[in-house]
Design a protein that fits this description.
Blueprint (H helix, E strand, L loop, with lengths): L15 E5 L4 H12 L3 E6 L2 H14 L4 E6 L5 H10 L7 E4 L17 H23 L7 E6 L22 H25 L4 E6 L8 H9 L2 H13 L4 H4 L1 H8 L8 E6 L3 E6 L9 H15 L9
Helix pairs in contact: 3-4, 4-5, 4-10, 5-10, 6-7
Length: 312
C-alpha cells in the first residue's frame, strides 16, 4: 500500500455511495474523490446550508459529478430513519460512516444519549442497519459492497464501559470521545463477523485519518467559548496536522482498494500520524468478541434497529 493516493482509486462508475458528514473536511474530500472516479454520491449532512454549498463546490469543480444532498442528523434517530426510508436506491455499493463530533462539553442527543456516543456510534449503527438491505442487494456486483466506519487513533484513550455507555456516572470529554471511537471499531469487528457468518459479500472495514486538519478539533472549544483552546487547536492544525486531502486517504483506500480485508483498520503509515495508508495499530479491546456482542445487543436495544437481514 506504500504510496497509495487518490489517483489509485479504481473506477467507481455505476456505483452508489453514501458519505455522512460530507459537507466539509474528510467527508467532503471523500465524496469529491469518489465522484471524480464516477460514483453517484449522496452527501448525508446535518446542515442543509453547508450541504448545499458543498454540492455547489463539487459541481463547480466537476460539472459531470453525480452528487446529491440528503438531510441526516445522526443525533436524531427519527432523522436517521427518514433518511433511510427516503433513499431511492435499491442498491447501495458503499456506505462511509464518516461524520462525528469530538471532545464536546457534556450534552445529549435528541433521544437522550450522550452526544459523542450517540452521534459517533449509535447514529451510524442505526443507519448501517437500516441501509443493510440495500448493501446486501449490491453484493452480487464485481466489487461487492462495503461499509467503512471512520474511527480515530484516540480510541487508545479508553475501552467502552458496558455499565456506563452514556457516561452518566462520570464524564470526561476526551475519554468519552475515545470510547466512542472504540465503539466504532467494536461495531466494525462484530459487523464483519456477522456478515461473514451470513456468507454476505459485504466488507466491513474501519479507517482513521491520523492527525488531519479539519474543523473537528476547534468545534468543542468554540461551543464553550474557550477562545484560547480554540486558537491552540487551530495552531496545531496549521503546524502539525496533515491536510484533509491526506487524512481522507485511509477511508478512501478502505472503501475502494482491491483486497481490503473484513475488520481491517487502515490509517497513516507513519506512527499512525501521517503518510500513505497502511495497516494501523489498534487496541486489543477492539477485537474482543464478547465486548462486540455486548455492544451490539445494547445498540439494538437503544436504537430499536435490528439487523434482521443477517438473521435469515
Amino acid at each position: 500500500m506504500s504510496g497509495w493516493s487518490a489517483h489509485d482509486i479504481p473506477d467507481q462508475s455505476g456505483r452508489t455511495a453514501v458519505v455522512t458528514g460530507a459537507n466539509s473536511g474528510l467527508g467532503y474530500v471523500t465524496a469529491r474523490e469518489l465522484a471524480r472516479k464516477g460514483a453517484r454520491v449522496v452527501l448525508a449532512c446535518r446542515s442543509e446550508t453547508r450541504g448545499q454549498e458543498a454540492v455547489r463546490l463539487l459541481r463547480a469543480e466537476m460539472p459531470f459529478a453525480e452528487v446529491e444532498l440528503r438531510p441526516l442528523d445522526l443525533g436524531d434517530l427519527a432523522s436517521v430513519r427518514e433518511f433511510a426510508e427516503a433513499l431511492p436506491y435499491e442498491r447501495l455499493d458503499l456506505l462511509v460512516n464518516n461524520a462525528g463530533v469530538m471532545a464536546l462539553p457534556y450534552g445529549t442527543t435528541v433521544d437522550g444519549f450522550e452526544t459523542q456516543f450517540g452521534v459517533n456510534h449509535l447514529g451510524h449503527f442505526a443507519l448501517t442497519g437500516l441501509l443493510l438491505p440495500a448493501l446486501l442487494a449490491a453484493q452480487d456486483r464485481p466489487a461487492g459492497a462495503r461499509v467503512v466506519t471512520v474511527s480515530s487513533m484516540a480510541h487508545l484513550l479508553g475501552n467502552i464501559d458496558p455499565g456506563d455507555l452514556n457516561s452518566e456516572k462520570r464524564y470526561r470529554r476526551w475519554v468519552a470521545y475515545g470510547r466512542s471511537k472504540t465503539a466504532n471499531l467494536l461495531f466494525t469487528h462484530e459487523l464483519a463477523r456477522r456478515l461473514g457468518a451470513a456468507g454476505a459479500d459485504v466488507v466491513a472495514a474501519a479507517a482513521h485519518p491520523g492527525y488531519a486538519a479539519t474543523n473537528l478539533q476547534t468545534a468543542g472549544p468554540r461551543a464553550e467559548g474557550r477562545r484560547g483552546a480554540e486558537r491552540l487547536m487551530a495552531l496545531g492544525n496549521r503546524v502539525f496536522a496533515q491536510p484533509a486531502e491526506a487524512g481522507a486517504l485511509p477511508a478512501l483506500h478502505a472503501a475502494t482498494a482491491p483486497g481490503v480485508r473484513p475488520d481491517s483498520f487502515t490509517g497513516p503509515s507513519l506512527a499512525m500520524w501521517r503518510g500513505a495508508p497502511g495497516s494501523s495499530r489498534r487496541a486489543p479491546w477492539t477485537v474482543d468478541d464478547r465486548a462486540g456482542e455486548l455492544l451490539w445487543t445494547a445498540s439494538e436495544q437503544l436504537t430499536g434497529v435490528s439487523y434482521d437481514a443477517l438473521k435469515a
